[in-house]
Amino acid sequence: MANDHTYRDTAADLLPLVGGAGNETSVAHCMTRLRLGLRDRSLVQEERLRAHPAVLGVVEDDTYQIVLGPGTVARVTPEFEALVERERERGAAGTPVTAEELAVQGAALRAERKARNATPFKLLLRRIAAVFVPLIPALIGCGIIAGLNGVLVNLGWLPGVTPALAAIASGFMALIAVFVGHNTAKEFGGTPVLGGAVAAVIVFAGVSHVEAFGQRLSPGQGGVLGALGAAWLAVRIEKWCRRRVPVSLDVLVTPTITVLGAGLVTVFGLMYMAGEVSTWIGDAANWLLDNGGAVAGLVLGGLFLPLVMLGLHQALIPIHTTLIEQQGYTVLLPVLAMAGAGQVGAAIAVYFRLRRNTSVRTTIRSALWPGFLGVGEPLIYGVTLPLGRPFLTAAAGGALGGAFVGLVNQLGTEVGSTAIGPSGWALFPLLDGDRGLGEVVAVYAAGLLVGYAGGFLATYCFGFTRTMLAELNVAPAPAAPAAGGAPADHAAPDGVPSRLR
């Protein structure tokens, strides 16, 4: 897709496949996925949706998520939103049922899904992730500029430009607490600018004149964790005021009490406490890899894919951000990125093991390059997870890659990332560490190779039982109706028999 017209065409193709404009309750996107709130998921034409050339995969969660890939999703989403608005203005609901019926069905689906999947802990993690995910593009952009500036400084090139690049790369990180405060207030139902105003106290240079717990504060103390807590407290105070302050005084009293109350608690309590927690997180992450080495990397790299499936990986986002804020890079992300390498190796092994299954091999060919670039959803949901055992052997490959990076870290070479979000080959421009860039890149590249090889060998040798191979290593045939009209248990369009799903 090379131009706006094509992105508009993609949006126009997708809208009827998800039930039309009347079926959409919300439209948003993250790094790789178009996230849709749907009234009735039964209206989604999932088989046709997955077959669309722009769609890399589909994920069902609290929102219906269509994987389009980085860059593409940011261009398709506004076209999709505009199309939804135009269709609504024309009165085209796009569904064969009334809005009332859709609302009832949607409420029932949401209630059922929440009862089954949405634990309070996972919901909290999703909300915290929603605070940080919008910051990822800025982290990536500034991280790449910082890496470019480091190369220019080391080479002695463009000395008149490098100070400007350093300022551009560092400006966002210097004020990241303000953005976290703004997003936190927005996510938890407060006024975003008040959350940002309270969090701004953390980075204000004048706090160095304030003493708390017997110590003078330093600008930035508490970082993103302090900003998260300060903005959440501001939301609670603001909501309390809204219920009690007369409407005629609300515009004056509520913002004043909110900023004053949350600001005092932040200065005389949260900054110090969050600073202690942030320091502990940084020390713990470094200690884990410095002392745990290969074992720590094995566990982190091996468990990351299951954590992604459970949604628990979102708990790591503020940890990564804290490490980047403290040290300039997170040492955890390159280790966790090995999980994607294991996934790629496993998919290549499946490709060679299922030589006759043209459907699965076609899926792998289309999803493999995004996998190399760190977009793993197409391989996870289209290949390894439906097959079962290859998902576990992919995790084993990630564990081996993580063990390698962890071992090298223990031996004295830290490998870190200056931003969160990318992995795979897309992480190379963001690498940093305590050694020269060439050495850091070499270690990460070697870790990817170990992950690829580990995932391939584990899957090739242990990813299939004889029964699975007998059933899967065949050319997919169209399902024929069995006696009584029941469908026979043939391979589905993706080549995976239904009983193996």
TrEMBL record:
- Name the residues annotated as catalytic in the UniProt entry: C30 (phosphocysteine intermediate)
Positions of the PTS EIIC type-1 domain:
126-478
Q: Which domain of life is it from?
A: Bacteria
Report the InterPro entries cross-referenced here: Glu_permease_IIB, PTrfase_EIIB_Cys, PTS_EIIC, PTS_EIIC_1, PTS_IIB_1, PTS_Sugar-Specific_Components
Which PROSITE patterns does UniProt cross-reference here? PTS_EIIB_TYPE_1 (PS51098), PTS_EIIC_TYPE_1 (PS51103)
How the protein sits in the membrane?
Answer: Multi-pass membrane protein
Q: Which residues cross the membrane?
A: 124-148, 160-181, 193-210, 247-274, 294-317, 329-352, 441-462
Region (Disordered) residue ranges read 480-501
> Where does the UniProt annotation locate this protein?
Cell membrane
**Location (main, coarse):** membrane
Q: Which UniProt keywords apply?
A: Cell membrane, Kinase, Membrane, Phosphotransferase system, Sugar transport, Transferase, Transmembrane, Transmembrane helix, Transport
The reply to whether Lyase figures as a keyword in the UniProt entry is no
> Which part of the chain is the PTS EIIB type-1 domain?
8-90
Q: What is this protein called?
A: PTS transporter subunit EIIC
This chain's source organism reads Streptomyces broussonetiae
